[in-house]
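Listing S7. Sequence submitted for prediction.
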Amino acid sequence: MENKNIMGYKPIFPLLISMALPPMISMLIQSLYNIVDSIFVAKIGEEAITAISLIYPLQNLSLAISCGIGIAMNAFIARYLGSQDTQKASHIATQGLVMSFLHSLLFVIIGLFLIGPFINLFTNNTTVAQYSIEYGTIVITLTFGSFIHIAIEKIFQATGNMLIPMIMQIVGAVVNVILDPIFIFGYFGLPSLGVSGAAIATIIGQFTACIISILFFKKYNHHIHISFKNFHFDAHVFKNLYSIAIPSGVMMCLPSILVSILNAILSTISQTSVAFFGIYYKLQTFIFMPAAGIIQGMRPILSYNYGAKEKIRMNQTIKVSLLCISSIFLCGTLYFFCFPQSLLSLFDANDTMLKMGMTGLRILSLSFILSSFGILMSGVFESLGLGKYSLIISLLRQFLIIIPLSLILLPNFGINSVWMTFPIAELIASLFAFYFYLKKYKCIMFQ
């Protein structure tokens, strides 16, 4: 067969599953580790889980920037591989790795100097503030291992190799989960470190994944050749990477901004509402991460076939991906709606949180199934280098509707009106996504 890359000839459904299943598994494990991490921290007390919730936006900001750069690398590398230009693909990968490292240095500054002022915006509770600073200083300052790991992961995925990124993610998550109780509660003769122990376990897990990713890249990479000999910054490549990385990064930053603003709004109601919202955001990753795995599997297939001008395969990829994502979200909606108490009980929820949270989870669960098309088309437009459309969809999903509606509805209709803004936002964003699909994607198909 002339085209030896499986993305150009293998039937779409088995190809998508083979490409999506490893990142789905790794993301499910990543979500599980996030939840387990919170379960251990919750045993310290509600103030500890509140503190972790307040640091989440900064952690997500780090993840957003690293993944934004990685997604841009993935799209361009896959596209050049589709047009059989491995030299250009390798050049993109080298520039992208340097870009990732440079951006990670920003979080050294944030972690060392800005954690305290950031936390003081959201709480006057000295214990919560102390826990937040202890945890945040560690996980934010030392995030550069995660930046390099994610960049290498995206390079592997761009070549169609999803198994190795899965292994890297799993090892890092398992190390974190194993070390969490040891460092938090002080097993095997070690001191009890509390929330600092959770942070140390997280960083060790990230650096373990980083080291493994470097070793695996040296041994198993056969498509991309990284060389820093005579390296020079390529402004044109940086500009192209930013054209996708900025919209993608902003999209992933939106949850950080959303959570920060809603934490400020909810803190005027009660500490319990902030803690519940933090728990929900950990739980919802268990639904959204598998869908993100589908998107990760879809991106290189779509980019490759776009570069190869295989428009029929592009359409098939989108249809199959939508079916898979919708199935995941339907299951998530049903589970959250039917079993909210069992989910909240994992976090030692008291009666007040259970009363608030059971209704809250049922309302919030409706947003899962309504988000299917919007999330799919965000991934599609990223793959085609049309980041601004993805950005608009994400702004509607996570910023432009939820926050203004929450401010309007909360004083008049209570806390449940805040949760209702989530499904409303997803419905509107999906309608806009369908409009962009008809306007822009159909134009590409008829070029």
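Caption to Listing S7: primary sequence and predicted structure tokens for the chain studied. DSSP finds 17 helices and no strands in the chain. The longest helix spans residues 46-82.
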